[in-house]
TrEMBL record:
Lineage of origin: Eukaryota, Metazoa, Ecdysozoa, Scalidophora, Priapulida
Ligase as UniProt keyword: no
The EC number(s) this enzyme carries: 2.4.1.-
InterPro entries (alphabetical): Glyco_tran_10_C, Glyco_tran_10_N, Glyco_trans_10, GT10-like_C_sf
Family: Belongs to the glycosyltransferase 10 family.
Superkingdom assignment: Eukaryota
Designated name of the protein: Fucosyltransferase
Record organism: Priapulus caudatus
Pathway: Protein modification; protein glycosylation
Keyword list, A-Z: Glycoprotein, Glycosyltransferase, Golgi apparatus, Membrane, Signal-anchor, Transferase, Transmembrane, Transmembrane helix
Gene (UniProt): LOC106809412
Domain called Fucosyltransferase C-terminal: residue spans: 207-385
Length: 392
């Protein structure tokens, strides 16, 4: 009899706890909406999204912070997803170094318990799961889609853009038309006596050869085929998992990065071949880091020459589209080998230009404070915005 009474008592306690959880998780947001004259909307046509509801202000206005403070208040950016599989690489629960010139303050966190306090919720396209989105989006929040991959790579990661139409307020990527522009690198002019600390080594006693360093590939890909064709007319050394010749393995991340730059810097040319063709604005660390910082002359392939002229440092690269064939490119490289002045001219940019990694978190933080676009903006056609390009 005592055991039966105990079971009944435990069931009653459980029922009370479930009721309280339901009240906190559902009724309180409804109460919040009624008090603030807010409404919810559902997104039709989505397999999994129908169960999600999003809080929007009927007047389409944004909740503003008090601007009378001498210093803008800190904003909170919540990283909802992991960064690929390396969660430790995201900035957690601290004031992330936004750069000495960043005019605003932000806290970056991965604690989902801070969701209601978050001004931006950031989703990495590579790891976002449509079935694990937050239940609510508040009117003061921006949902930000972060992506640095070409569209065909996202498909391989099971990100189907059409499933997410109408959900994200901002985009953050290498594309110049992103709400938060986040390129792999930026060029700038050197002014006055300014000295750029990341200038490459410009000594020219390097191996008269090109190096290809490719991790993922197949024999049918254009960049691999072109590299093999080039090797028929000019020395090319092949490294990377693609060719079964790995370098700088089993090192801490920072040490491995320096090791790669030192290795590439032994060669006069580095084949900075992107993994895609036709992806507008897609110029990665292959050019900005491996090419420029190593001091090797990058030979680039991927997006158009027009994009390189618009975004890269003038005169700092050789674009394969300037040549009718790999044989013609090889002839140009041999000519540069024979004329040191012509080769060194590709490095004259160091007296005029500088380059830097993008301060993307400061960009996002600044935009949150300035609120350049409202929370009611959403991307209704993500697949169109992402564009279409093919593997290389």
């Amino acid at each position: 009899m005592a055991d039966k009474a105990k079971r009944i008592f435990l069931l009653m306690i459980s029922a009370v706890c479930l009721f309280l959880l339901w009240l906190v998780g559902w009724q309180l947001p409804e109460f919040y909406m009624r008090q603030n004259k807010l409404s919810t909307i559902s997104i039709p046509g989505h397999r999994s999204v129908r169960k999600h509801r999003y809080i929007l202000n009927k007047t389409h206005s944004i909740l503003q912070y008090d601007t009378g403070e001498p210093e803008p208040p800190s904003k909170t950016i919540l990283f909802w997803t992991t960064y690929y599989s390396y969660r430790k690489l995201w900035p957690f629960d601290k004031k992330f170094p936004l750069g000495p010139l960043c005019p605003y303050r932000c806290r970056l966190t991965h604690k989902k318990s801070l969701y209601n306090q978050s001004d931006a919720v950031l989703f990495h396209a590579w790891t976002v799961d449509i079935d694990k989105l937050p239940k609510w989006r508040f009117p003061y929040q921006q949902w930000v889609l972060y992506n640095q991959e070409p569209p065909f790579r996202l498909e391989g990661a099971h990100f189907h853009a059409a499933d997410y139409n109408g959900l994200f307020n901002w985009t953050m990527s290498y594309k110049t038309n992103s709400d938060v522009y986040s390129p792999y690198g930026r060029r700038g002019r050197i002014s006055g006596n300014e000295k750029e600390p990341t200038q490459p080594r410009t000594k020219f006693d390097r191996k008269p050869a090109a190096v290809a360093l490719i991790r993922r590939c197949s024999s049918t890909q254009g960049r691999v085929q072109f590299a093999y064709e080039l090797a028929e007319h000019y020395p090319v050394h092949f490294y990377g998992r693609c060719f079964g010749q790995t370098i700088c393995q089993d090192m801490p991340r920072a040490d491995a990065s320096r090791c790669v730059l030192d290795f590439i810097g032994q060669y006069k040319y580095y084949l900075a071949f992107e993994n895609s063709v036709g992806c507008s604005d897609y110029i990665t660390e292959k050019y900005w880091v491996n090419g420029l910082r190593s001091g090797s002359l990058p030979v680039v392939m991927g997006t158009s020459r027009t994009d390189y002229e618009r975004l890269a440092i003038p005169g700092s690269y050789i674009h394969v589209n300037d040549f009718k064939s790999a044989e013609a490119l090889a002839a140009h490289l041999r000519n540069l080998d024979a004329h040191a002045d012509a080769y060194s001219a590709y490095f004259s940019w160091v007296n005029k230009y500088k380059y830097s990694r993008n301060q993307k978190w400061c960009e996002l933080c600044s935009q949150l404070h300035e609120q350049r676009s409202g929370a009611t903006q959403v991307y209704d056609s993500l697949e169109q915005w992402l564009g279409d390009c093919r593997a290389n």
